[in-house]
Amino acid sequence: MIDFSREQFYEQERLIKMGIHVPDFEIDIKDKTFERAFVAEYGISYSDYKNIITKSIDLVNEENVVIANFELQTFIDYVFNNGIGTDKYQPFKEHFMLYGELAQQIGRDKKFNFSDTYATRHNRKLELATRPWIIYDGHVLYSYKSIYRSHIVLYERIRNGRLSCSSKEMTTFENKVNDKKGKAFNEAVFVFLSKELPNSDIKKEVKIGKNEVLVNEDKNIGDFDLLLKNDENKVIVGIELKDFIECRTPYEFLCAIKTYRYKLIHVYERCEWLDKEKMQLKKIYPSMDEAYRIKMIFMTHHKSSHKYMEKMEHGVVEMSLLEIIENPSILFE
After folding, report:
1. Helix (H, G, I), strand (E, B) or coil at 263
2. 59, 130, 251, 256: which one has the fewest Cβ atoms less than 10 Å from its Cβ?
């Protein structure tokens, strides 16, 4: 068995050891929304997908081989004609098998992009991790390890909201996953800081808008994920929390920079509001006065490469969760 958890980035282990653990989103495979999303994305149910894996492994074990190399019809007869159903073979082939004809579907305005073949890309639709069954010269080739690992990779991508989706249903499902992950991350940071900074007054999800406690007449401009007031240092800290993915390839790095820039637009908007409306915070913290300074922090789950690329505007400070865990008081410096 492969202990996939040991292959994750070392930083997550450090976060857990240091006293904070952001709950993982676990998929309820019996949930109707997930079932519909999986069928829409792959043409077969998740249950069928797992049964195909099981039958493929049974065939390897029965033949007592390490690397499967079976005639295609033998594979189809054993795996699909033996209970799963022959109608499941074609959608399974289209989404989980590598075969030569796929090359005709790569290109502009076609099913697959050229980038789906780039070795430097992660989460590609045409890679062994996605398609561990290979059709070659009338035979099917695979190994127990490759299909087991592919199953783990697929599950991890879905539950982490990282799957490259083709269907509307799976895209909607993944958006919900990311929304839940973001809320779990925010709550975990709130609980951690409340414990580590007992002398600070911490509020969460403080909105700014026309009909909110913090008023902006023009429009709603979002919220402060966290507000912290520290009387000893006479500072109020606004924190924007983002559970961005950890970049694994140059392409993901470039995508992350674009996302970062987009999110910063809204953070800068709130900073501009703070510059003009600082004393509105007295509605939240009645004991504050003009002597309090304001600090805005953009905090990400993992260390961001953006801070090494561009300077922040409006005095916004970039920090990672790991930096805060190592020294929570750094928030007030």
Report:
1. helix
2. 251
